[in-house]
Amino acid sequence: MFATEPLRIVAVSAGLSRPSSTRLLADRLAGAARDRLDAEQDRPVEIRVIELRDLAVDIANHLVTGFPSATLEEAIAAVTESDGLIAVSPVFTASYSGLFKSFFDLVENTALTGKPVVVAATGGTARHSLVLEHAMRPLFGYLRAVTLPTSVYAASEDWGASGDGYTDGLPARIRRAGGELASAITGGRAVSGASRALGLDDEVVPFEEQLAGLRQT
Asked: Hey, what CATH topology would domain 2-216 get?
């Protein structure tokens, strides 16, 4: 019975336009993860993309009333119950969009504990690529998710570019991130190692004790 249960990948896209490069990147990342999962195991894979633009009014109403609509509640449940998450936002004012942040503000801060997440972003220029490190990783760190090593930023010029001897092109980065997500979903080191399996939270030496040790020496 267990072997026939599908693996569920949910991609959250905060793109506002249609068509949207943010949605396209979400689709490509989900497809890469599914391809790797299909190649390495026999369980079916379900992909769902949640477009936040369709939930914008519901998100705003929930923020001011405290009551989610049935549609929004179901979308949040899909995110929290997924086996792997892909989160993609356009860059607005050097960070993720307000719509993206507002949605994840509605997710309980322990609901994503241990969940493997690929973070990705789109923008008009490569100058904003650090949004992945200074904004998105800290957000999912706070939510206790396992943010995977490869994050993907797609500037306008990245679409169709093949990269060079020093930098992978966008398709290669998408494949690598999708592969990491697939590995984490099926029990790879990124999700089963360190923090959960070994209980590193219990083994971290408090800073005060480290300082006391230094004083003794």
From this structure: Rossmann fold (3.40.50)
